[in-house]
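Risk register update: the risk of archive-format incompatibility is retired. Evidence:
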Amino acid sequence: MFTGIITGVGRIAALHDLGASAAHGKRLTVHAPPGYLDDVGLGDSIALNGACMTVTTFDAPAGWFTIDISAESLARTAGLDREGPINLEKALRANDRLGGHLVSGHVDGVGRVLELAPVGESWLLRVLAPAALGRYLAYKGSITVNGVSLTVNSVADGPEGTEMRINLIPHTVQNTALGSLTAGSAVNLEVDLIARYVERMLAPAAAKEPA
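Archived output:
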């Protein structure tokens, strides 16, 4: 479990195939900020751009760790198949502040950035979400974009999906990898956990699983 509050910006430094076929995944080597891995152990969970991954090897003094990602996960996420900056968040502890919202680290879909532009002292981020996720998005609701907990400022359904507008304060742009996004960038989206449970509870009785 996570909160969507990014605790460091790392970098995917290398990718190695775990096999010769397309059914095999990859091993990623990630460089973390100085001191980031001091309290990390083997098997710990770290979210990479919002996708929960398991630390398989690491060198805390050198500041790097590796994760293995399956072909299925690569096909359903964005930004984990190439070198570059990446948002990092360690798993939530029981005594941590819940500064963002409850985040599972399971990517629900991949969206597309329509625009990232300065507006006053802040930035406007426009993202087109898959139509299937539109019903989970609401004005002033929560959304996770590449692992960052954000507030939706407006929602508009269209033929190609659901467009949402989000305001990014300077702190967010400066302390996450969102500032490197451009129009056309693919981003990992995770909808509000509570919204999924509400949908299930309100589903018609006929839609329940058979006994």
